Amino acid sequence: MAENVGRSVLVTGANRGIGRAIAERFVAAGDRVATIYRSGDLPAGVLGVVGDVRDTASVDAAFTRVEEEHGPVEVVVANAGVTRDQLLMRMSDEDFDTVLDTNLAGAFRVARRASKAMIRARSGRIVLISSVVALYGGPGQVNYSASKAGLVGMARSITRELGGRGITANVVAPGFIDTAMTQALPEKQQQAYLGAIPAGRFGQVDDVAAAVQFLASPEAAYISGAVIPVDGGLGMGH
User: Record's PANTHER family (predicted)?
Assistant: First the structure.
């Protein structure tokens, strides 16, 4: 059994990008941090359980392992996501289904499993990682934006269902963050995006991690069903 410090936190997809920064931030705060991930290396201090958010049995088994090591999960961050960008008329059923099953149904499976212990404890924090394109839209991203918009309805329904039990459910919607995904864009496209962002720069992964950590904190106990944009002003009014 791990040393009983901080809270039991589970972040899906903590092997890279935003998920990695979120996990690192919770570790630095003294929490017991675990992840469900597919492959790759993990930050120091993170318990890694290989699993697939598209599979209920895999999610259940991963949670059971985390509970054995760290205790019941008190904070869950549904971050795991994929893209399969393609123009609408060329987008296959598989492109659509894969993205929805990972990004939206995956978050559902994780939140459903986490809620069991949270309901018993009458306390919990659920944070779903969405995107500015959820409400802003993005060409070639019908599947991705639909999956990320769905998280808003999910968080708000969870809030109405479990809000009286000390459980909050919120959405963080990052804009363009300086990750491998953004760096892979053509230079011309990067410049066009920069021109649309009032802050005039791409965000850093820690900008997103800071918002997640706040929503998971005792100070955010009266914030639920909210969509917190971390996008330098890009999505204002959406």
Answer: 3-OXOACYL-[ACYL-CARRIER-PROTEIN] REDUCTASE, SHORT-CHAIN DEHYDROGENASES/REDUCTASES FAMILY MEMBER
CATH of the domain at 74: 3.40.50.720
Total structural domains within the chain? 1
Which tokens belong to 8? Answer: 């039991």
Spatial separation of the C-alpha atoms in residues 80 and 106, rounded to whole Å:
8
Count of positions (residues) in the chain:
238
User: Edge-to-edge strand order for the sheet containing 46-50?
Assistant: 46-50, 32-37, 8-12, 75-78, 124-129, 167-174, 227-230
- Out of 37, 136, 144, 193, which one is annotated catalytic? 144
Q: If you search the block for the tokens 């060409």, which residue do you land on?
A: 139
55: exposed, middle or buried (Cβ count in 10 Å: 0-12, 13-18, 19+): middle
Low-confidence ranges of the chain (pLDDT < 70): 1-5, 238
Whether 144 is a known active-site residue: answer yes
User: How confident is the model over 74-106, as pLDDT tens digits?
Assistant: 999 999 999 999 999 999 999 999 999 999 999
Give Cα separations from 156 to 14, 29, 99, 110, 227 (angstroms): 25, 28, 21, 16, 10
Residue 235 lies in a domain: no
> Taking the model in full, what pTM does it have?
0.95
Torsion of CA 80, 84, 85, 91, to 10 degrees: -140
Residue at 232 is within a domain: no
